[in-house]
Amino acid sequence: SCFLLLWVKRSLPHSLYGVGSEIWKIISPSTLLVSDSVCLLDGIMEEFENDTFGDELLLASLDSTVAPTQTPPANSTATHLPEYKPPTRSIFPSFPYSTPYPQQISLMQTVYSCLASAKCAVIESPTGTGKSLSLLASCLHWLLDHNEATGAHLALLRDDLKATVNCTHSGPDWVQAYAQRRERRLALNSAIEPLESQQSALCKVNKLIEEYSSSSSISMAKSGRTFSQLAREYASLFPDSLPSDGGRRAREAKPLSVREKTDEDEDKFLVASSLLEVGFPKDEEEEKEKEGSTDTRVLQIIYCSRTHSQLGQVLAELKKMPSLAERISVVTLASRQLLCVNQPVFSLKNAALVRDACLDLVGGPKQKNCVFRAKARVNALSELLIGARVSAHEAAAALRSAGREEKCDIEEAVVAAGCPYYANRAALPLAQLVLAPYQTVLVPGLRQASGLGTDGNLRDTVLIFDEAHNLLDAVAASFSASVSHADLASSGRLLGAYMDRYRSRLSAIALLRLRQLKQVAAAASASISGEFQGLAGQRRHRLDAQQRIRASVDAKETVYTTSEWLLVTGIDHINLDQLVEYLRQGHCLQKIIGFGKWFGSVRSRPRTKPTSATVGLSLSTCLEKLTGGPRRVVKEEDENVPSLTKKRKVVSAQAVEVSQNSDLESCGPGLIALLSFLEALAQSESDGRVIVSPVQVTGRTLQSDSDCVPHDGGLRFIILNPGRYLQDIVRDARSVLLVGGTMKPFEEFMEQVFRPAGKDDADVVLFSCDHVIDAERQLVIYSLSQSPKGLSWDFTFKNRMNPSLMSACGEFICELCEVTPGGLAVFFPSFDYLGTIWTHWKTTGLLQRLQNIKKLFREPRQSTALSQIMQAYAAAAMSRSGACIVAVIGGKLSEGINFNDDLARAVVLVGLPYPNVASVALREKINFLNRNFSSPPVTTLGSQEMGVNASRSEESARLTPGQLLCETVCMRSVNQAIGRSVRHAKDYAAIFLLDRRFSRKQVLNGLPSWAQPALVQPPPANLAALLNQLKEFFLRNKSDASC
């Protein structure tokens, strides 16, 4: 009857619709009403999810035989849904200070507006202006407002859906009305489903926060409880989650690296026989959970920074706003190495080994499973992290320390708490604020492994990259790899020993892959030594490539594209994808490294005489023990000859193991480095380059500013276009904010990141604000071209080793130390030049003179000793005589340490830290930028950019992209060093720029716009006038600060 009604409706002329009652009686003698037919049709069609396509086919077939009738207008409102109204806000009541600075208000309003309109932004806010606090306040206010607005929008959609479902049409045009109603219902359902999913997750978060906030046992922020106390209380609430042994098995387990290994254990080091046996090591329980559940997530803000210490500072800033922090769920991401609490696993130290050992325990037999991985305890701890707002770092640190204590209740609480790493991952979908290091977000594999987004896809998330002036460098570092000549040699030894041990038991495919890996290691090592393998044509190709790529300067490094390097080394026939896949799967790498440790430890054990315990051993084992160890087969001929035709000579293993196998235990890191290098090669694109650093007979001199290359040579893989690896993130995310203290020139990010990702200039907001200090009173900058004695401050590469110049520099610093209160920081272009000038001052007595005025400190190359030196420097700077520290621009002190107040009342920048143009890597990148970004980079940015220095833009417009890169790298380092000294509104400092090149207009315009008013032009005529001005500056600001 439905099809008959449809046919009659389409067949009758429009003028006859008015006599519908008579016609329907003729068609339906049983007096079937139109409304009844509509209800019947609704009941039938409700059985289908989407049959719009079938309706169109039916109508098309009818139209082919029936005269056309009037159709509804093209702009039908059937799918016009209620519009989402984004929230607006101009004040931020949760900001911890009652009167924010105008710069902070402007920054918060800009960020809020960007998120509300789903735009991207490049934001420059000077260090010391409360940038992190302003970011958190604006972002979290927007998140809460957006969640509230989304709830209201969802209610409108539900009401609309209810009205649509209940709507009936009794007129003659009931088929078209039904089609429109059904189309609207489908559109409403598709809009409602994701919002309901988010609201469901949000309700769960709010419920957890409310439960733990109201619980007397969970109030860490107010009561000051430690996590161990919290875990004990948790254990008392949930005693059933404790294992039957009270955690004894976890406490008494020995580290994997020191467990007893016997000759019978070596079977477990045998790699998979074929690719069919290989399976990527996964968490089986987690995979089962994924199969049976849907991905329900809240809207997330992912806050990224370079280091975990910086993320800790962000968390501390969040705690200053309790009205926001108490309503937001937070998760801080970290690796297994940082969060593991299983003593045998985290004692392995190496991140790759910790990961493999963790997966091995999780996916192994139940009796060997990690006791901290129990699903109930992990889920309970994940709810604790969300509800009580405890970071996984705090949990892991407390659990590790509690595991070393003797008290049983704390031990039981540790086991009850579960694994912080897996609890972190379980809590991630409910985290509204996610704190993550750069690498976790930038690398797709790490992103997916950590659980960010849906299978690594960051769709509809908000990404904030703090300290983003180093973002492109961080991307390049994340996708780069290096392996030294020593790593390749140790890898070859380890692989050779492994194949000798298991040759007769390895399958053909396993032996093939291991031989390929050994061949790659040998070829790579030969390329470092200059002994290329391949045909004469390949050698000619190599020579042509060298002549084309090498510069006219005396550079010892050589650059190749990936395909060129594979060709000249003679390994272009090896499928790197298959090789890497085999090594990564089935614990292959872990087994080989484990064999090396076992084999080395067994050979290093003292031999003991056989005892009665050897009665049950086999004949061959008894003979081995009686003769002093297993006998080893040493081949005399080439390895490629079939084994059955080789002549073999049996020698005692004890005679060769000292020279060849004594270091097998330490070969693991080399093999890991080799695999990382091969992974980078396998994933390389057209912008990837291989740099070969040959073996150096003599070490680097102090006059060399080359990149950090091992003395024995090595290989490096680098990428030249890091912005390409950000494009997918920018495309998928709702908003991406790049925030830093020295972000200009903005065009670098527009050209390399946003425009290639499909963002128009209107989709990206460019923002810059001034500092919170009064630069004219609290900051003074002297750009000096010559010394007090008239010697030009020429610290160029050719002249900076001039003894007179180095002596004049030391004497000037001595004069500044006499009048500068507190601390004085001196920055040099590189560690090499710092070492040279330090030696010169020591020889001439200037070093002792400096130490007589202020206590002198020096930045170490190794960051491990940095904290101790900074603690000692801070204590000395607060003393009456003060202190002086010499450091490097671009080092840890100039980038990550705050020299507020008396820690640096004066900052001296010696020379300009231009990158080394003799570096082949830099020259290759300059050529790449000039070829692919040939248009003038900084031209017209329009009114979107606030506070842009116009003269600098004009100067930059005349530079090529490669020249602009060198200029940007230099001036960002200078500005970062300047920004270290002024950290709050009442801080003050004096800056000295010692280099004649600072007098150039282009360089001075590269200084921050907020610091331009502090420039003293022209500088004082003599040293006495300079020192008098400096004394007045310090006295005036000291009195102002005390008011």
Automatic annotation (TrEMBL):
Pfam family, one: Helicase_C_2
Recorded superkingdom: Eukaryota
Cofactor: [4Fe-4S] cluster
GO terms for biological process, alphabetical: establishment of sister chromatid cohesion; nucleobase-containing compound metabolic process
InterPro entries: ATP-dep_Helicase_C, DinG/Rad3-like, Helic_SF1/SF2_ATP-bd_DinG/Rad3, Helicase-like_DEXD_c2, P-loop_NTPase, RAD3-like_helicase_DEAD
GO molecular function terms noted in the UniProt entry: ATP binding; DNA binding; DNA helicase activity; hydrolase activity, acting on acid anhydrides, in phosphorus-containing anhydrides; iron-sulfur cluster binding; metal ion binding
GO cellular component: nucleus
Helicase ATP-binding domain mapped to chain residues: 90-516
Keywords, alphabetical: ATP-binding, Helicase, Hydrolase, Iron, Iron-sulfur, Isomerase, Metal-binding, Nucleotide-binding
Record has Hydrolase as a keyword: yes
Family: Belongs to the DEAD box helicase family. DEAH subfamily. DDX11/CHL1 sub-subfamily.
Entry protein name: Helicase ATP-binding domain-containing protein
